[in-house]
Design a protein that fits this description.
The chain is α/β, with parallel strands linked by helices. The protein has helices at 31-44, 46-49, 65-77, 90-98, 110-115; strands at 13-18, 21-26, 53-59, 81-87, 127-130, 138-142, 145-148, 157-160, 164-170, 173-176, 186-191, 195-198, 201-202, 215-220, 223-228. 20% of the residues lie in helices and 34% in strands.
């Protein structure tokens, strides 16, 4: 298995599900390193991101037409549409507008959000599937359920409004029911995380076990507890 040594020094990337598609938040730093790491992460989850509409939050990065134009073309080659660039830099904002991109996200009113949900589908029932190992520095936030086929390594985190199901080992941080859903659960084939949270409750990291076992984590009487995952 690949080691996480040295990976923590790489830029951090967060992926959030938003109304318009996906929001990718980049950490400030040397643009070439951030740019290369972004493409590396995208290539590792090509199946998940193929066909996605992406807004990019580049923070205070000062980017010119050559920078954004190159990135837009590289994403397009991967069947990803870069439609918006969010930045604190006036230069980057102007560049994005010149290239025909939006520079801010639309914020829907609560009632508009509710109307957009199909009849019979409750808020939080959307789900995404990640078929890969999440390595140190990777963070995904999504308002619905998150399913991972692979491991979640130390230094990686998942924050979901709904449930989290991991067909692999959970070694990083997992927060289910992040919007206050106390019925949310976390399931994994081996649960040894750096931190577990359900709604506003945080669990104590369990002691190291000799034998891995599938477990389901839920809230019971105000406490986060783990039980043997044995669906019938």
């Amino acid at each position: 298995m690949e080691s996480d040594i040295g990976i923590a020094e790489k830029p951090k990337i967060q992926i959030k599900g938003i109304r318009e598609g996906l929001l990718i938040i980049l950490e400030d730093g040397d643009w070439q390193k951030v740019h290369d790491f972004l493409l590396e992460q995208i290539d590792q989850q090509a199946e998940f991101l193929c066909g996605a509409r992406v807004a990019l939050d580049v923070g205070s990065q000062v980017l010119k037409a050559a920078d954004l134009g190159q990135l837009r073309n590289q994403l397009s080659d991967r069947k990803i549409t870069l439609w918006a660039v969010i930045s604190d830099s006036p230069t980057t904002q102007q560049t994005a507008q010149t290239l025909g991109m939006e520079i801010q996200l639309t914020k829907a009113k609560p009632e508009q959000t509710e109307q957009s949900i199909s009849p019979g589908i409750q808020s939080g029932e959307q789900a995404i599937l990640l078929h890969r190992t999440l390595r140190s520095g990777f963070s995904i936030q999504f308002p619905g359920h998150v399913v991972v086929i692979g491991d979640v390594n130390p230094g990686a985190e998942i924050i979901a409004g709904g449930n989290i199901v991991i067909w692999g080992r959970l070694r990083g941080m997992a927060h289910a029911g992040a919007e206050g859903n106390k019925e949310a659960i976390i399931c994994a084939l081996d649960v040894m995380p750096t931190q577990l949270r359900i709604a506003d409750q945080i669990s104590i990291t369990p002691q190291q076990r000799k034998k891995a076992q599938p477990e389901i984590v839920r809230l019971r009487d105000g406490s986060v507890i783990a039980e043997l995952w044995n669906p019938k």
